[in-house]
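Fold sample X.
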Amino acid sequence: MLTHLRDRPLQAAFAGIDGHVASRAATWNWLGGIDYRDVVLSDRSGRPAVLVRRLVIDRGLLALALDPDDLGTIRLIGGEALVEVRRGGSSIEDILAPWLAADSRSRSARPLSFELELVDSTIELVDLERRDAWRLAEPREGGWSVSSPDAASTATPRTLAVATSRLPLGLSSVLATRFDAAHVLDGLADVRLDIALPAGPDDAARIAGSVSGTQLAVCRADTLAEIVTLERCEMPLDVSLDGRMVTVRNLKATSPLFKAEASGRIRIPQGGSWEWAEALIGEEFALAADIDLAAASRAIPGGITVRPDVRVTAGQLQVAAAAHADGDDRVLEVRASSRDLAAVQSVVPPAGAPQTDGPQTERMLRWNEPFTAWLRGRRGPARGDRLRQGRAVLREELLDGGDGRCHDDRRQFRRGNAGRHDPRRVDP
């Protein structure tokens, strides 16, 4: 089909974009598939953003006429996309934003159902802030895919199935530019996620599946300096997000550095740490983590130091937090404890002693029960009640820098109505 009619379906599908869509040729079959050649999506100035050599829809005209909301399998063969990312936006968002906004406001149409296949396709992400570019090609180990199974009705959430294999996480620097994030990820990730998109503005998006990574690192976004490294991490998850609340049905993370698990509902907090606690205490949730301090010390550049001259070399740290009802009140409890803690202390020669050029002297330190700490906060049922710190206890073995001996110490803190802390010594 070589007439101007061939682009009518494309223009109808992308009605409202801030740009243009056109093709060079098309073949329509009543019983076979539909084949478009050289499809170009361009911005308002005519600059191409997406070029697809072949766009193939496996359902013919008759099947689409009987069920226009089921597109079947769409194959993009030889696709090329150029996306320029800046702080707060991107070139592809500029084109599609009006179309996506109009689509989200329309509730009368049944959601489209399709499965998308990318063949010999590439996406080039250009970071305008960092003057960097990432070129993602489909032929990776295992490839990557996105599919959307059929939705039974407008009330049924549209779902996406996302799968990747050895996805380079370094491209998170592009996302850091777009969303002005303080940190980026590096390494490789395997992703298997089923995403249920919200059917209405008040509905939640649900994400279930698993994410695993290798050779991982968390870095500063501005300098790319490594903050922590992980050899590997596996994370099964089943969570829902609605913009105000995160509902965690299942969330676990396992790595040589730590094991963590969370469940319950957490309101997305705003403001500082006390406002964060105020948001957490209002919902039912539980969090537990077990951290290998030896692995953590190896994973953090410079290791873990408790003092400038004391570096942790071994031990376990357990952290747990929970919010729940206690009568008419809400209670937030946080507990942390450690065991089998070991460290190395650098021994500084006393003043006046002769200095040597040899290696610095170090002394091994060990604690059986270094510390146990817990915090309990409470909020009343009345409107306007604020979170009050009911009691905080710290039991620790303090290392005296003078004689090197360990002392047992227990401290208790109470928060008064004036918001001031009153430390009180309690005999062990």
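Fold sample Y, listed below.
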Amino acid sequence: MNAREISARDLRERQADILNQIAYKKGTQFIVTRHGKEAAAIISMKEFHLLEKVMEELEEEMDISDAKKAIKETRKRGSKSLNQLAKELGVDV
């Protein structure tokens, strides 16, 4: 899928046509430019939801990876019980 570039000015003039292409023509994507620089992307809701799902899965994988690293580091450095920590901090539990 190749996104087509469209200027913000052209988008304003052709918004109904562009939205119809996005909604009904599978794989249609637009990169909106402003003053020659990429400013935004327009994709279908189906692609948006897929992108959201992929991002959530990547976040979960990163969280799992971070948790594994923390567990490994804790095993390497050792850990303390809640009672030991409370005693060191001088608080009651």
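Sample Y note: Residues 45-77 form the longest helix (33 residues).
Also: The first strand starts at residue 4 and ends at 7.
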